[in-house]
Task: structure prediction
Amino acid sequence: MDVKRRKFLKIAGLSAVAGLGVPSAFTNLLQGEALASSSGQGNPAEGHKPAGGHGGHGEESTGTQYGMVIDIKKFAEHQGLADRCINACHTEHNVPDFGNPKDEIKWIWTDDYAHGFTEHSQYKRNAGLNELPVLLTCNHCANPPCVRACPTQATFKNEVGVVVMDFHRCIGCRFCMAACPYGARSFNWRNPREKYANGNYKFYKNGVNPNYPTRMRGVVEKCNFCPERLAVGKLPACVEATGETKAMVFGNVNDPNSEIAKVLNSNFTIQRKPAAGTKPSVFYII
Amino acid sequence: MYDQGKVVTGLAIFVIILTFPVWYNLGATQHVPKPELPKDVKKCVETSAFMRTSHMVLLNQWRDEVVRDENRKLVEVDGIQYTKSLQLGCMKCHPDRKKFCDECHTYTAVDPFCWDCHFQPKETK
Ligand code: SF4
Ligand code: SF4
Result:
């Protein structure tokens, strides 16, 4: 009996000592969590420096952050320009067109103002605004929730602040689609390489770009700001399609000497869902 | 031993069946993969021996550099520049998947999914 009691006391004592250590370990853990979430994205193990966005609001991103200004009025002046932009992008990237909204894949698309800017007041807004096509696409957020949601780092922010998808790595979990507040991502429910009976791919206007791959069934896709074009000194396909109209301006928003920084500085611009805190890099002149 | 004759005959038949593949193929030549090499180009980014064993390692490395690190610099070997790309690099010299890639892939029963997404030169015509 006695021995058992001694043993019990020993264990109780040891447990108490161990218990004392728990709160500090817990605090450490919490601090680690906070650090991890404030560094936002990028894998420290891979040595990737997150380019632009860190977590936390109000903090300005540094480093290169590519972005875009879309001037809605210019699209009113040039009829059909929005469609030409969409076509340029979707043809360039072999985006399939299944002709039904359920299977739709879209990298860039149009909607009206009321749907694009749900957070902005629609009270006594001029009715004409809804007649204009508003081009919508991935905002390449400086603080992208999709990047944090992706379990495989198939979606990541690259050195120049573009939120890129590595299609090779996507496992199709669609966490990113749930995380993106802008509906900028599409899922390949069907094989994007489906063909018509006549043997043509079901791509936009049947155009095939032999220099760009397709995706496969079961992966997510979205606008990547045309890194393959930027690499050879070209503008993104949609921006190129606007030509001299200046309806879209592309560049590094963090470089004060860039054209886009000047446009941003001299115009009043708005972003989609600013309250989401994602810091979109696509700006609109309304 | 009882039924000695039956047991020995059974054993003999068993051994014959077991070794059937060996002697059936005796003397018959196997199909050895012969990937068709480009006629006018004699050099590659690496030696044939390296490419034979490790081309997939190189392709993965190129992919990571291009897609993840935005490093699209051309690879220069002996004064010749190559694009780090399956579709726009390798398949410029080896345009025929069936006669080049599939020769060994079929033989070794590997089924890479490169072509689920990447086009072969002839495919888009
Ligand atoms: S718009 Fe959506 S997909 Fe694009 S970076 Fe922002 S959260 Fe990600
Ligand atoms: S669907 Fe693909 S890109 Fe999106 S979170 Fe999952 S693995 Fe990442």
